[in-house]
Inverse folding.
């Protein structure tokens, strides 16, 4: 995948994930689930997925002396 | 807790930090870049720790725990969405770093001024940073003053706490510039995280027999606190209004975005980003669990912000751990204040008084910058002693007010049509909107100031750019250079 396509792919993916983090816990799916595995677990999983994605993106960065 | 014990702990802390700061000074170069950016040669781990300590203030264990106390799990969503704002650093961090090296930018506001070819842009952005960050810093000192006063049962006067924190912040900063700030921040970040984790484990295991026990009790006694809107504090509009401006914190706050100029290499920047994410995730969880514990153990508090000091005064936490938590919260506040002071000082000559003769060469610029370190501290101290309503309003408005810089920052990397007039309009009018709405308490259509300032800034930046002249040549050169370098370095 070209760099431009990757840029668009990640931007769209992050946009959707962050949108979900804003909306999903307020929807009937989670807003009456008053347990540990409701919004608490959802937001934790969201953060862990974001951290993993950022690990993947930054792992590809190259410094001049590495090539 | 006795006043003498607290004074002694703070004194030992100050001495330890001062030894580190003086050690840092011995390795300090003589230029402006050395003093304010650690010579653009910061290692990844120190960069991660200073980024963490600067970002996380006394707000976490006091304010965020308080939000959890009154509003429940929504506080976790708010803070983790903020943490996910680091995706902006994955996109913009390498861009800042590359142009910072190429054009020798010292401050993010200088970058804006050069990119849009306008001294007024640098001036107005720097002044906006001063207007919003000084009250924000004052509130940090106010927090320490109130904490020490509360934890000592009034034996340490409010003013004494504020002055002690200010003296520590200014001494370390003045001694060795960014290198001393980064090294002492590393100490402070380590203290913040260690004591926070330790204390929450003490509370959860002693009071609830573990995390399972705590959640079982929450589900039984306060089930609403595990959902949103839950008890009502985090209705969707409030959640959006709080969270949206903070999502852009890593770009909008110059004391944080200036740190994108500092890593030695992209590899070190990666360590900085990932280290911060891990730190932030743990620190957030701890602050939230702290708030939940307070909800279960202290159900009748009238002021949510007092949850932490009152929890510390219970016998669940051993007094030595409570003392360390007090130090950890003070460390969080001091490490935020000293970084802000240094960033604002770096803007004085570079962006505000650029063409005054006292700033005419590098050594003069460095001298002026260093003089402003104690001057800004005095102003912050004065604000903290006044405790005016406007200071609190401006501090709360800081995230909404600084948000107005984001369209111009994103535009500088991606949109060649962006113009200086558009930056000025979006920063000035957007900043005024944030301040007026925050101070008046108005919420048009139920939306919070941060949402309105964001909408106004984006609309003005795009609208005014379309009808005014953009600096085409600079935009071509700036964006063209980045395109080539990003491709070589495999940065998205």
């Amino acid at each position: 995948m070209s760099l431009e396509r990757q840029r668009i792919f990640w931007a769209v993916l992050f946009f959707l994930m962050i949108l979900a983090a804003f909306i999903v816990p307020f929807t009937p799916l989670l807003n009456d689930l008053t347990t540990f595995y409701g919004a608490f677990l959802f937001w934790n999983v969201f953060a862990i997925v974001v951290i993993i994605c950022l690990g993947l993106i930054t792992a590809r960065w190259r410094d001049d002396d590495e090539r | 807790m006795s006043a003498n014990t607290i004074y002694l702990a703070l004194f030992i802390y100050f001495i330890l930090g001062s030894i580190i700061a003086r050690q840092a000074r011995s390795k300090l170069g003589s230029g402006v870049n050395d003093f304010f950016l650690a010579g653009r040669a910061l290692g990844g781990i120190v960069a991660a720790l200073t980024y963490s300590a600067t970002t996380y203030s006394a707000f976490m264990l006091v304010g965020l725990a308080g939000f959890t106390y009154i509003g429940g799990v929504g506080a976790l969503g708010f803070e983790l969405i903020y943490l996910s704002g680091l995706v902006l650093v994955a996109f913009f961090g390498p861009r800042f770093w590359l142009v910072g090296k190429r054009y020798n930018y010292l401050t993010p506001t200088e970058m804006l001024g050069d990119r849009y070819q306008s001294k007024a842009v640098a001036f107005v952005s720097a002044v906006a940073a001063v207007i919003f960050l000084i009250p924000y810093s004052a509130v940090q000192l106010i927090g320490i003053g109130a904490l020490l006063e509360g934890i000592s049962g009034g034996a340490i006067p409010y003013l004494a706490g504020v002055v002690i924190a200010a003296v520590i912040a200014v001494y370390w900063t003045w001694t060795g510039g960014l290198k001393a700030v980064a090294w002492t921040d590393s100490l402070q970040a380590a203290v913040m995280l260690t004591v926070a984790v330790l204390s929450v484990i003490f509370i959860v295991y002693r009071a609830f027999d573990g995390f399972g026990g705590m959640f079982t009790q929450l589900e039984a006694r306060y089930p609403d606190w595990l959902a949103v809107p839950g008890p009502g504090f985090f209705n969707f509009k409030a959640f959006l209004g709080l969270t949206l401006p903070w999502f852009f914190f890593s770009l909008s706050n110059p004391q944080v975005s200036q740190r994108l100029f500092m890593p030695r290499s992209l590899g070190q920047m990666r360590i900085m980003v990932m280290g911060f994410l891990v730190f932030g995730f743990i620190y957030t969880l701890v602050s939230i669990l702290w708030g939940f514990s307070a909800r279960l153990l202290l159900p009748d508090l009238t002021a949510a912000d007092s949850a932490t000091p009152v929890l510390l005064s219970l016998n669940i936490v051993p007094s030595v751990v409570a003392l360390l938590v007090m130090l950890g919260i003070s460390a969080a506040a001091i490490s935020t204040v000293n970084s802000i002071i240094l960033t604002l000082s770096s803007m004085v000559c570079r962006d505000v008084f650029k063409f005054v003769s006292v700033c005419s060469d590098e050594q003069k610029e460095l001298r002026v910058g260093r003089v402003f370190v104690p001057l800004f501290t005095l102003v912050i101290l004065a604000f903290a002693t006044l405790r005016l309503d406007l200071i609190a309003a401006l501090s709360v408005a800081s995230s909404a007010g600084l948000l107005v810089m984001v369209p111009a920052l994103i535009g500088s990397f991606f949109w060649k049509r962006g113009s200086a007039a558009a930056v000025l309009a979006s920063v000035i009018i957007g900043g005024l909107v944030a301040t007026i709405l925050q101070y008046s308490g108005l919420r048009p259509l139920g939306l919070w100031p941060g949402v309105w300032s964001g909408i106004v800034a984006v609309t003005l930046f795009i609208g005014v750019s379309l009808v005014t002249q953009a600096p085409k040549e600079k935009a071509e050169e700036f964006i063209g250079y980045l395109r080539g370098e990003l491709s070589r370095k495999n940065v998205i």
Remarks:
- Chain B has a mean pLDDT of 92.
- The CA atoms of residues 110 and 437 of chain B lie 28 Å apart.
